[in-house]
């Protein structure tokens, strides 16, 4: 096999290298300017990233969300500089290809990690909107407790039973969320029953006057008692009052003290809180009253007894006559 003679191809190679060298020298100022633009944008990205991180850490409760957002802004500034530099070199096609490739890769990653991406976006959105903060008492679906940590993908809630519940951020973002801390107050509702022999209006006045003596009750002008329904053994009342929540007294203690206060005030006013009582009344629409039935039964018994006594006396008289 003959060796390839380089003398035949060297003029072509030399010509090509010369063309590239001349093009490089011709574009050397653009290359220098592009490198300078990239360096400037890299420095600018660092400065913007640090400033954004400080601002977001003060504005957001989660440092993770603040760091992520600042990193995204930093990368966007840096990429902007790279695209400007490439465009300055006349590589518009390269910029378009890079953007198209980035879009395709982002779409593929979004489909592959859909659940993770959804939780991440929900965490960022909640970090900006702030529906709750660390230390707030929240309720979402069956979870009820105090927020301990807000992460990018989930939120840690400590229930009142001392358990830590890890809730995906998409659940808190999608579903109904109740924040018991944001207003700083909470209304308590306590049902209580009184006997049919007592007046609901009098009972309401007694309960309101007694509850308004408690220090933990606020908005005392809104403390109220409403008749709710007729029960088998009682008239059901509904007691409403407001407390600071979360406050020094606490929900459970406030409810306990209120129930004790209601019971003692009703007892002092001689108003009965009845236990289940069943009264039989046969006098409704055509029936006979119980006392009437009992008196008739007593009459029948006395008549039967008199008849027995008479029959006994008659038999005794007959035996006497026979003797």
The largest beta-sheet arranges its strands as: 4-3-2-1-5
| Oligomeric state as shown | single chain
The residue-averaged pLDDT reads 78
Overall CATH class of the domain at 185-268: Alpha Beta
- Second-tier CATH architecture of the domain at 185-268: 2-Layer Sandwich
Number of discrete helical segments: 9
User: Strand-and-helix sequence, N→C?
Assistant: HHHHHEEEEHEEHEEEHH
Number of strands: 9
Q: Can you give the helix content as a percent range?
A: 55-70%
The CATH topology of the domain at 185-268 turns out to be Alpha-Beta Plaits
- Beta-sheet strand percentage? 15-25%
Largest sheet: 5 strands, antiparallel
Taking Cα atoms only, what radius of gyration do you get, to the nearest Å? 44 Å
| Euclidean distance between termini CA atoms | 169 Å
Envelope shape:
rod-shaped
Task: List the uncertain runs.
Answer: none
């Amino acid at each position: 096999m003959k060796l390839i003679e380089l003398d035949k191809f060297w003029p072509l190679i030399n010509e090509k290298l010369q063309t590239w060298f001349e093009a490089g020298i011709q574009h050397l100022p653009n290359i220098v300017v592009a490198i300078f633009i990239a360096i400037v944008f890299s420095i600018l990205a660092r400065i913007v990233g640090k400033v954004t991180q400080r601002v977001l850490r003060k504005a957001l409760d989660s440092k993770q969300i603040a760091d992520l957002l600042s990193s995204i802004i930093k990368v966007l500034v840096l990429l902007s500089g790279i695209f400007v530099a490439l465009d300055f070199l006349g590589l518009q096609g390269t910029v378009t290809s890079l953007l198209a490739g980035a879009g395709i890769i982002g779409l593929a990653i979004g489909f592959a990690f859909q659940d993770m991406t959804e939780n991440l976006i929900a965490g960022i959105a909640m970090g900006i909107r702030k529906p709750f903060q660390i230390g707030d008492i929240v309720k979402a679906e069956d979870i009820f407790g105090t927020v301990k940590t807000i992460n990018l993908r989930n939120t840690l809630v400590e229930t009142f039973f001392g358990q830590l519940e890890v809730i995906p951020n998409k659940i808190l973002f999608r579903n109904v969320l109740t924040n018991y801390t944001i207003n700083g107050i909470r209304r308590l509702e306590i049902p209580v029953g009184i006997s049919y022999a007592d007046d609901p209006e009098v009972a309401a006045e007694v309960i309101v006057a007694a509850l308004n003596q408690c220090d933990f009750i606020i908005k005392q002008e809104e403390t109220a008692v409403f008749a709710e329904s007729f029960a088998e053994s009682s008239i059901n009342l509904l007691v409403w009052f407001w407390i600071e929540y979360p406050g020094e007294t606490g929900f459970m203690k406030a409810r306990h003290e209120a129930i004790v206060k209601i019971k003692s005030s009703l007892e002092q006013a001689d108003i009965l809180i009845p236990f289940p009582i069943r009264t039989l009344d046969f006098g409704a629409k055509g029936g006979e009253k119980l006392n009437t039935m009992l008196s008739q039964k007593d009459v029948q018994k006395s008549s039967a007894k008199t008849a027995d006594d008479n029959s006994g006396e008659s038999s005794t008289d007959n035996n006497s006559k026979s003797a």
